[in-house]
Amino acid sequence: MDWRDKYIVEPGAKLRLADYDPSDTGKNKSHEEALPKIKEHVERMAKLQYLLYADGSQGLLIVLQALDAGGKDGTIRHLFSGMNPQGVSVACFKQPTPIEHDHDFLWRIHAHAPPKGHVVIFNRSHYEDVLVVRVHKLVPRDIWSKRYDEINEFEHLLARDGNVRILKFYLHISPQEQLARFKQRLDDPSRNWKISESDYTEREYWPQYLEAYEEALARTSTKHAPWFVVPSNHKWFRDLVISRIVVDTLDEMGLKLPPTRVDLTQIAKKYHAAVAEAKNGALGKGDLGKGK
């Protein structure tokens, strides 16, 4: 199954998150059943990231958005930690600093856009400026309502001029699952540090956040930067869906190893000559230490 077709937010279509079951697992019945597929996808992602880096002509941006305890950190930890850190980075956008606040809302975002050959993961993103800003009325409606078009233009710029592929995932959980995860934070001393007062104050705004997400996803899901609503009550299914969509996307990017820049015949001769010298003891004992 192509999860992109099943969970994509069709460009221009209206969206009701109530139509998406956050506990959906498709035909997969358990973590044990899905785990071999997830491992296969993660290994494949690592190999494709190597090609992406070597190819050096395209970038990949992955946007993760969710309500509190939605699983953004877990997604990054489970799926992307196997990639080479040299070509992957994570950016997290929370409350703007005073300097960031004095610029347009996309100023701090653009600096983190992926360069060619790299994968960048946004753990929260520029969408906070049409979500939390809207829900808490931090700016007037006539300001945040214009940002949907500005976001679309920004992402089009990245895709067109930066040759960046963009995948955006909304991790969809239920209020009951969120509360269960809050309990885990209370019961597990190793997770106590994650607890904050805002977990519960923000929960009071659940309906307003869903409304904000529905409009944001509907108005900014485009052909070059699609949104996917990923059922995430079951973490393993979330990982299965996202890893498969990332693998399928990388597969379609036509990534290739760059051509060799040297004469391999001459390099082979130099290699075999160096091997022969090493066997014959041509390198004097003192030669290796001359640089000291």
Write a structural description.
With 292 residues, this protein is of the alpha/beta class. The chain is built from 13 helices and 5 strands. It has a 5-stranded parallel sheet with strand order 2-3-1-4-5, with helices on both faces. The longest helix has 25 residues, at 31-55. It starts with a helix and ends in a 12-residue tail after the last helix.
Rounded mean pLDDT is 93
Q: DSSP helix count?
A: 13
Backbone shape: globular
Order of helices and strands: HHEHEHHEHHHEHHHEHH
State the helical fraction: 40-55%
What spatial order of strands do you see in the largest sheet?
A: 2-3-1-4-5
Share in β-strands: 5-15%
The biggest beta sheet, please?
Answer: 5 strands, parallel
Cα-based radius of gyration, to the nearest Å: 23 Å
- State the total count of DSSP E strands: 5
How far apart, in Å, are the first and last alpha carbons? 60 Å
Low-confidence stretches: none
* Coarse structural class: alpha/beta
Layout of secondary structure:
Layout: H1 3-7, H2 31-55, E1 59-66, H3 72-79, E2 88-92, H4 98-101, H5 107-110, E3 119-123, H6 132-135, H7 141-144, H8 147-161, E4 164-172, H9 175-187, H10 198-203, H11 206-220, E5 227-231, H12 235-251, H13 264-280
Parallel strand pairs: 1-3, 1-4, 2-3, 4-5
Helix pairs in contact: 2-12, 3-12
Distinctive features:
47% helix, 5 strands, 5-stranded parallel β-sheet, alpha/beta, 292 residues
